[in-house]
Every structure is written in C-alpha cells, then in structure tokens.
Amino acid sequence: MTEEKEIYDVVIIGGGVCGTALLYSLSHYTNVGKIALIEKNAAVALVNSKQTSNSQTLHFGDIETNYSLEKAKKVNRAATMVKNYLLKHDPAQEIYTQYHKMVLGVGAAEAVFLSDRYESFKTLFPALKLIHQEEIAALEPNVIKGRSPDEETLALSTPDGYAVDYQKLSQSFVDKATQATDKSIELMMNTRVTAIEPGAGSYLVKTNGKTILAKTVAVTSGAHSLLFAKELGYGKEYALLSAAGSFYFAPALLNGKVYMVQMAKLPFAAIHGDPEVHDASQTRFGPTAKVLPMLERHRYGTVYEYFKTAGLSLAAFRSFFAILSELTILRYLILNFIYDIPVFGKFFFIHQVRKIVPMIKLSELKFAAGYGGIRPQIVNLNSRKLEMGEAKILGKNILFNITPSPGASTCLKTAEDDTQRLIDFLGGDYWFNQERFEQDLA
Question: Are the beta carbons of 180 and 23 closer than 8 angstroms?
Fold first, then answer.
C-alpha cells in the first residue's frame, strides 16, 4: 500500500515548454508542496519544443495576418509574459535573439489589406509601422533587390521581434523551479506513462518504472494529451489533424523575420524566413505543412497511437473528408507534400521563397534534414471543422492541454490559467498568488 507521504499534490505529464512553464508557476507562486514532472525522454523539450522542431518565433499577433484583433490582444498579453521572463532571467541572451520583423504585402490587393490592418492594429502595437519599398530595402535589401519597382510593395514592420530557443527556455523553467527550497519537486526523466487511472480521491499514474499517486494531474503532452483524455472518457468529440512542418536553409539573406500575408481559409502559417536563433549566418525558410498520421515527428511508432486518438469511426472519416475536400486546403497540402520530396521538392519550394527573396538561387536552398515537428490541429467531430488555437479538456481533478501553434508563445499564460484550475481542484488551504505572478510577468 502506498503511504500518504508519497502522494503528490500535482503530477505534470509532459516536459515540453508548457509543462515546464506550469512547473515554474507552481513552484514560485503557490504553496503546492509536492510536485512531479514526468517526461518520457532523457531531458525536457526534446519533441515539439526542441529548437529544431518549431519556427523559433515568439508570436505577438502584430504581423500574423491570420489573427483577428481580438485574438491578437490575447496572444500579445500572453507573449509579453514570455518576453518579460526572458528580459529578466536571460540578460546574456543565451535563450533568445532580438531583431526586427515584418509582414510583406506584394501587389495592390495585399497592399490595401495591410494598410487597412495597420489602422486597426496600430493602437495595440505602437511600435508597428507601415513602410514602403525604400524603407523595406533599408532593413532587408534582399527583399527588394530584383523586385520590379512597379510592383506595389509595402510592409508592416516592428523592431519587437524575438527568436526563442524553446528548448533552452524549458530548461530555464526547470532550473528556476528546482531552486525553490520549500518544495519537493521530482523530475522523472526517461519515464513513460502507461496509464492514468482514477482512484479513491486521487489518480494512479502508472509508468514503466513505478506507480505514483496524484491528487491532481495536468497532462501537457501535446498530441498525446488527447490520447490520455480519451482513455479516461474525455474529449470524445475531438480528433487530430497532425500537420508536420519542415524547413529549408539558405545563407544569410535576411536580417530579421519576414512573413507573407496569410492565405485565406488556411489554418497553417504562411511561409516566412528568419535568421536561426543561434546562428545568423543561416536563414531558415518555412514551415511547410503536410498531413501525417503520427502524434510525433520521426517516430513511426506513434502512427498506431494516432489512429487510436482519431478513432476509426464514421464521424472521424466524415470530418476528415469534409476538411480535406476544401479545394484550397487540398491544393495546399498536395504542394507541401511535394516540397518535402528530396532534391525534387526545392524546385517547387523556391517559388515560395522568391516571394520573399526574389534573387535567391536554387543552389543556395538546402532542405533542413531532421528539422520540423508536428502541430496537432484540433478537429471537432460534431461540426466537422478545424478548431484554431489550443484545446483544453477539463475533467475531475485532471486537465489536458493540446497546444498547436502558438502554444509555445502562450506557455506562461496557459500556466497561469492551469495553476488556478489546479488550485481549485485541490481546494482547502492551497493558494495561488496570481497578483505577484502578474506583477512579475504581465
């Protein structure tokens, strides 16, 4: 029989940037005393939070043209928390690099769109400027070089750009959390959760090493979160469309991040280019996005888990058919499959890159082998539509986070929300000093 002292107040399953941010929040701003972080890999942030697996962007909503003003307000507040953490705890800039960024409008229609957007967004983002060809050329000469002077070109630009190594950020959260001397924090690396079972007033969390008890559980394991939820009877109305992103490298062609205007009806980010977070001599272009039946990139053992998560039901097949039969999405996905074909793919992909850097040569473009992760896009089986943004499933003293883009940018806001939920689950004398959290970060 497990002794009472071995019961954890909170068990966090998944050590990506969201799980480690939650650990940081619990350790610094609550009186929760006993916490375990369970991660199946040897260290934190080796899946989608890994530096090579995501687009290394801190999204504020200023140049992401698929964000409405209301969404941009929420994302901006959340991303500002991450920025403030970095400015406070990373003075040597080992985790991030700051540079300018812009979204480029080419042609009359995109120029009008960005001009209108600027009028709506300039109050929320005071540093945002509407600039034309000469000003663009001063910041990014390769964006204008070779472009027709008669082609209407303008951009929304801001100096507030951040490239973040979310792998290092995750480790920073862990380092700061384990410095809390009034907490008992156990980091269980190389530990795979095999089952979560409800018990008498607690959960039994079974792993490949041992079984532990938890008063509350936070599952922050990306696409795997939905699999755990369904095994406990939650989230049956959801499935996942796993979008695998890949990248291409080129020599140093850009000084900052350059986005393109988002295509209508597409849930995926437009192709963009930016310097590598730790190596400005390389420019990264992407991401591409192709649908793969996997929960984790490059791990083919997760194909079976994907189909367990999706469910081989009529509702799932009808939902996927409805989404993929949309011609804009279908054409986009077919092209993105082609982009990833070795050698052959870059002949097609370079046409996308030349929208940003017109004079780039084919010989300068190289597929970034081993780069890219999985973005779990949520499919609502009732509406048969994609749901944008993160999905959160709440159960009895348990929560599940499924965090597609921009999950890393909003990790501390998610941690704030989940900390409050866990404190509510625990009840009694447990507290969360949300005022100090906001003072420090927001």
Answer: no
